[in-house]
Amino acid sequence: MNERLDPAAWLRLRETVAGFVATAPAQGSEVAELAAQLAAQGWQPRDVCLRLQRMVHRLAGSAGSLGYADLSLAAVALERLIRALDEEGGGLPSGVVLEQVALLAGVVAETASALAVNDSALCPGRPRLACVGIDLGAPVVLTVGVDPDIERALRDVGLLALDGGEMALEDGAADPLPPLAGVIVSLEAAGDPDARAWLKGVGQAGIPLLVVGGADTFLGRVRAHRLGADVYLPQASAEEAVDRLVQIIGEGGQEPLRVLMIEDDPLMGGLVSGVLVDAGLETELLVQPEAVLDRLEAFEPDVLLVNLGLRPYDGAEVTAVVRGAPAWGGVPIVALAEPRQTAVKRAALIAGVDLVLSRPVRPDVLVTALREQGRRGRRAREAHRHETETGLLTAEAMHEQLHREVARAQRSGVPLAVVLLDIDRLRALLLTHGPRAGGVVMRLVALSVRRRLRGTDVAGRCCGSAVAMILPGATVTQAMKVVDTILAEIHASRVMMLEGALTFTVSAGVAGLEGQGVSLLDAMAATRDLMTRAEEALSEARRRGGACVVQGSLPP
Amino acid sequence: MGARGDPEHVLIVDDDPALRAVAEIALGELGGLRVSVAGDEAEARARAAECNPDLVVMDLVLDEVDGRDVWRILAARTPPPEAVIFLTAAGGVEREALRAEPHCVGVLTKPFDPLTLADVVRALWRSRS
């Protein structure tokens, strides 16, 4: 904010923040005292409740707007809980709820007493990184100590490479992070303690972090892990590294993480889901544990949050059921437990809970835990769907995806194109160059295909060595152009093998769903028809001698 | 002063001095709008008489007073402001009920982001029918 303000306004902003910081500790401790007093008196009398509600409301609003996100998060959660208690009316709140009130009030008091003007996101004490507040016109990837080839490869895919090494590392960990699409850092450059602290901030902010370089050893991998790397690629080419970063950015940027919360107490459920939604997590609250398998299928969560004290089925039993379901055996599960229930916690861990948090739980701790576990869950599910070698979707995942996209295209009436690519005379190529050549050629095709994918496109394995691309929203004519580019790139490339240069060609068939008539078939029949037409087109391309693309017949 | 399609004068009514100040900087210095501020009903009336605001940004909870009542008082003056935007807490009073208030063009949730406040206010102002 400071870059865009004139000095007088900047001074006023600082004064405003300073004024808030000077009064916040008193407000925070008054909130804590009132909350304790109300809890001791069974949440009575009402006028004191209202006074507390107003105080917390004010604190929540001003803290957030003045750049103190942590204080605001705790105060908003406390406000929500107080309002829910007020709306419940009568009846003594449960011990769990009162404990949560006490904890949140404590966090508010503690955080408010520790505020400093320079900690505000609006008036940081140190200068920010240079790219803050400047519209650079493209997503920025900060590189630290990496090869210039990587910077070139970033530019090739439309990302702006910014050599942030000096700025980021000199300024240290206290700096707020600029709006970055991702960070690529070399293991060597990340050895410095300042760099480590700064990179920790990168991880906490949820910015994709790719670590490159170094020797591919156990120690190297441990160091990359300690830096919070999303992916460590010790010996990748610049293109592979950038390709992988784009993939992670795509995964992270596409959709918010999804949390399925199983909690039978609607008051706590409402409070917690409110906190999660505020933190940008898509949250579904399930009050009946017996519906968990249906909700898993429908909502496809990245992480589960389970109350261990559910009735009549406890959290460990719910966990055991989830772990037993073939498709959901690996979904991360975070559990909330009462502090002294050691046996319950042990049973939950044995049943397969990944992390147990004791109640009352701080909202920031819960959000961080769910983000980390959720990211792990999403990555694991994505990895399961992708081949390690080529980064393409597996044939099974591709089939599911195709069916989904066809159904979507039928519903929306938006066109859909499918491309099938296959390597010409693969058997002869393997006989001449040996089996290793097959893998090399396949990776090259996969890389070329993946570089042409837009956000909604997918590419995966089809039958045998064929690769399929699904291009939602594209007409057959548009898809033909994409294929022409891919074929030209592949045919121009030369692979160096021990026994000399290897060149090869690829054939392709394109078919599409366009116009009317398509919706007359059901999704299953339309998928079959689409694939048959693409296969026929590919066969025709082969018959013509390969190295070309053929447009398939029109839909029936 | 403002670009075409901007409100001529915005009146911010909020009882929290820190919030008032940051909203004033966000809309004024940062957003390039002409802004006045008020902390309560009496001050809101006095400021409105001076500056004839065409847009009011109104906190829903003003100490003991409901921001909707203050808005109705301001809306009854001549010339009347064209539109109001209510500021409320996350998960507070139903947004739908607030939107139903006469001339309400939007409801903003606190805490707001000062960096984007002016853009949001402009977009809401332009959405009025």
From TrEMBL, chain A:
* Keyword set includes Phosphoprotein: yes
Q: Which organism is it from?
A: Pararhodospirillum oryzae
Q: What is its EC number?
A: 2.7.7.65
Gene3D superfamilies with a match to the protein in the record: 3.30.70.270, 3.40.50.2300, HPT domain
Annotated GGDEF domain residues = 414-554
Q: What is the protein name stated in its UniProt record? A: diguanylate cyclase
What is catalysed by this protein? Answer: 2 GTP = 3',3'-c-di-GMP + 2 diphosphate
Q: Which GO terms describe its molecular function?
A: diguanylate cyclase activity; protein kinase activity
The record's annotation in InterPro entries points to:
CheY-like_superfamily, Diguanylate_Cyclase, GGDEF_dom, HPT_dom_sf, Nucleotide_cyclase, Rev_trsase/Diguanyl_cyclase, Sig_transdc_His_kin_Hpt_dom, Sig_transdc_resp-reg_receiver
Does this UniProt record's set of keywords contain Cytoplasm?
no
UniProt domain HPt: residue ranges: 9-118
Query: What are the record keywords, sorted?
Result: Phosphoprotein, Two-component regulatory system
Q: Which NCBIfam families match?
A: GGDEF
Where does the record place the Response regulatory domain?
Answer: 258-374
Q: Which GO terms describe its biological process?
A: cell adhesion involved in single-species biofilm formation; negative regulation of bacterial-type flagellum-dependent cell motility; phosphorelay signal transduction system
GO CC, alphabetical: plasma membrane
Any idea which residues bear Phosphohistidine here? H57
UniProtKB/TrEMBL annotation, chain B:
Stretches assigned to the Response regulatory domain: 9-125
User: What's a Pfam family in this record?
Assistant: Response_reg
UniProt protein name: Response regulator
Q: Does the keyword Transcription regulation apply?
A: yes
- Keywords, in A-Z order: DNA-binding, Phosphoprotein, Transcription, Transcription regulation, Two-component regulatory system
Keyword Phosphoprotein applies: yes
InterPro entries referenced in this protein's UniProt entry, alphabetically: CheY-like_superfamily, Sig_transdc_resp-reg_receiver, WalR-like
- Whose protein is this, by species? Pararhodospirillum oryzae
Molecular-function annotations in GO: phosphorelay response regulator activity; transcription cis-regulatory region binding
The domain of life for this entry's organism is Bacteria
Q: Which Gene Ontology cellular component terms are annotated?
A: cytosol; protein-DNA complex
GO BP terms: namely: regulation of DNA-templated transcription
Residue(s) carrying 4-aspartylphosphate = D59
